[in-house]
């Protein structure tokens, strides 16, 4: 695959290193994604010089190597690989690489020994060892009381390594550039062979999604106790609750241990109140926003994929953890005789959806539906674990909550929300979020479900799938995030429900529209519903995972 590093960063499985190019300035940076997306990621601005002058470049990037060569002269180049998770290797021939550090006040570089410099990066609590294995190496880093005024590193006609670590450098032998390149190529071939089938129509999207999922994984570090798939290494480099579930879903068949670890990240970080965090990275856990429960929904699907997930100890861990999550909603998110509420649009994952424009808190039918489905799943899991009395309690809870949903948040025109301390009816009904009760289609009367599906098709279906806001709505906004854009996880939930609850023709049509959308907009965070253009973060794993899951199902069934 020819990789555009303006759209998708160059990286590899397990590494926090990546290389990308700014779209506007076209500047190229070696970056590091430790600390999540609130931490500065730029390490060095990278330029290629010839006779001390910047020249025009051709950037030739594949899944395993990136080469910067002088325009019209392929023999004069610099090439980067990441053969080990914490090692970035640079090889130069006929050109000079200039690295200019993106440093702050206390960041310091000093000579460690001949041909080796150690760089201490304060905001990231990280150290780099920059070593010359061969070639010409020069450093200009004038000292000024508490740090270097600037850092300028030059590399020419040789092999150089940048290695990251937290505390102390351990002397080691580095592999040759060719051996390192061969190693990472082998690793990627193995991943690609396992991840999905080939298909002529969708091969470009398969290649893109396969690379994004592989290259967005980071190794255990700090808070992260196992390999974790970030949402992206371009912009949103955290692991968000919800996103992790869709990534786990596709990993489940061939990489069950890794799939389970994506869920375990949040189980390990579960608060004593019962809630999961909003997001986790190697350094930080945030509980600012609380996403609706989806773990049980995903885990049932994982059990269908691989017997690994039927192990009683794992099932028990998911069961016990999910009970605490649902108890959290009962104790801390539900007023008496009402339905659980959101305190912010971000709680739902639909940050700025029109449902939330009148204020907070909001009783929303999507949250109620996720809770009902979770209680139904808990009841099934309780039966499998021999907890018969709890199984009955959970079914009773689901029945009660379903009755309350239909009483409080449904009328002859469909589902709606309520807002504020007085639970006033929200008149804005133009958001797709109000149609998510299709996920409990197995409980809804056929007339209610038929009305929901007709509403979806009549008011939200576009050339590329379901828009998140009616195009006719005054709240619809081009590149409006949840005010119209198409999103992969919502598409998956709706397609899955349509296929399973008697609307398979529509489900397949929407599935195929989404698959075709990726041929236009790539694996972006979300998409324009009219043009199909990829929007915001253009290298997103939950989009990639949903695509791979849907295309695999299509190839299996169709």
Descriptive key words:
558 residues; alpha+beta; Beta-galactosidase, Chain A, domain 5; 13-stranded antiparallel sheet; four-stranded antiparallel sheet; 13 helices; elongated
Structure description:
- With 558 residues, this protein is of the alpha+beta class.
- The chain has a domain at 17-187: Beta-galactosidase, Chain A, domain 5 (Distorted Sandwich).
- It has 13 helices and 28 strands.
- Strands 1, 2, 3, 4, 5, 6, 7, 8, 9, 10, 11, 12 and 13 form a 13-stranded antiparallel β-sheet that branches. A four-stranded antiparallel β-sheet has the order 19-20-23-24.
- A hairpin with a 4-residue loop joins strand 5 and strand 6 (66-70).
- Helix 3 (243-251) packs parallel to helix 5 (295-305) and helix 12 packs across helix 13.
- The mean pLDDT is 96.
- Pfam families: MGH1-like_GH (PF22422).
- Residues 237-543 form the Mannosylglycerate hydrolase MGH1-like glycoside hydrolase domain.
- Belongs to the glycosyl hydrolase 63 family.
- It comes from Neobacillus citreus.
- This is Mannosylglycerate hydrolase MGH1-like glycoside hydrolase domain-containing protein.
């Amino acid at each position: 695959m020819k990789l555009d590093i303006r759209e998708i960063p160059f990286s590899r499985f397990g590494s926090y290193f990546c290389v990308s190019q700014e779209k506007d300035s076209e500047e190229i940076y070696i970056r590091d994604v430790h600390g999540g997306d609130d931490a500065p990621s730029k390490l060095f601005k990278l330029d290629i010089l010839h006779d001390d002058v910047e020249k025009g470049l051709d950037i030739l990037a594949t899944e395993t190597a990136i080469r910067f060569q002088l325009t019209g002269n392929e023999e004069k180049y610099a090439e980067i690989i990441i053969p080990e998770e914490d090692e970035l290797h640079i090889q130069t021939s006929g050109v000079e690489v200039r690295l200019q550090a993106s440093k702050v006040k206390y960041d310091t570089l000093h000579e460690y020994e001949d041909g080796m410099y150690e760089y201490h990066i304060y905001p990231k609590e990280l150290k780099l060892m920059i070593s010359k294995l061969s070639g010409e190496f020069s450093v200009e880093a004038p000292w000024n009381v508490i740090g270097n005024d600037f850092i300028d590193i030059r590399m020419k006609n040789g092999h150089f390594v940048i290695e990251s670590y937290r505390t102390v450098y351990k002397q080691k032998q580095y592999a040759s550039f060719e051996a390192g390149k061969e190693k990472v190529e082998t690793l990627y071939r193995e991943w690609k062979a396992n991840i999905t089938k080939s298909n002529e129509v969708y091969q470009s999207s398969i290649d893109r999604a396969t690379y994004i999922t592989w290259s967005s994984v980071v190794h255990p570090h700090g808070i992260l106790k196992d390999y974790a798939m970030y949402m992206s290494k371009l912009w949103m480099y955290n692991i968000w609750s919800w996103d992790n579930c869709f990534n786990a879903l596709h990993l489940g068949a061939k990489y069950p241990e890794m799939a389970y670890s994506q869920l375990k990240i949040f189980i390990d970080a579960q608060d004593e109140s019962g809630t999961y965090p909003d997001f986790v990275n190697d350094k930080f856990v945030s509980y600012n926003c609380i996403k609706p429960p989806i773990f049980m929904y995903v885990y049932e699907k994982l059990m269908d994929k691989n017997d690994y997930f039927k192990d009683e100890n794992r099932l028990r861990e998911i069961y016990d953890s999910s009970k605490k999550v649902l108890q959290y909603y009962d104790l801390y998110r539900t007023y008496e005789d009402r339905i659980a509420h959101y305190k912010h649009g971000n709680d739902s994952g639909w940050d700025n959806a029109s449902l939330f424009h009148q204020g907070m808190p909001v009783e929303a039918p999507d949250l109620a539906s996720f809770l009902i489905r979770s209680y139904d799943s808990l009841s099934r899991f309780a039966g499998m674990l021999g907890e018969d009395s709890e199984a009955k309690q959970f079914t009773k809870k689901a029945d009660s909550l379903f009755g309350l949903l239909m009483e409080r948040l449904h009328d002859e025109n469909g589902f709606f929300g309520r807002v504020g301390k007085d639970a006033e009816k929200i008149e804005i009904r133009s958001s797709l979020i109000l149609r998510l009760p299709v996920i409990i289609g197995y409980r809804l009367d056929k007339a209610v479900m038929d009305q929901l599906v007709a509403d979806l098709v009549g008011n939200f279906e576009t050339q590329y799938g379901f828009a998140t806001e009616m195009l006719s709505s005054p709240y619809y906004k081009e590149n409006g995030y949840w005010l119209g854009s198409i999103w992969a996880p919502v598409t998956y939930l709706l397609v899955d429900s349509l296929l399973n609850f008697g609307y398979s023709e529509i489900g397949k049509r929407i599935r195929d529209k989404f698959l075709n959308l990726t041929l236009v907009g790539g694996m972006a965070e979300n998409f324009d519903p009219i043009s199909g253009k990829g929007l915001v973060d253009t290298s997103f794993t939950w989009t990639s995972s949903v695509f791979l899951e849907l295309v695999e199902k299509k190839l299996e069934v169709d």
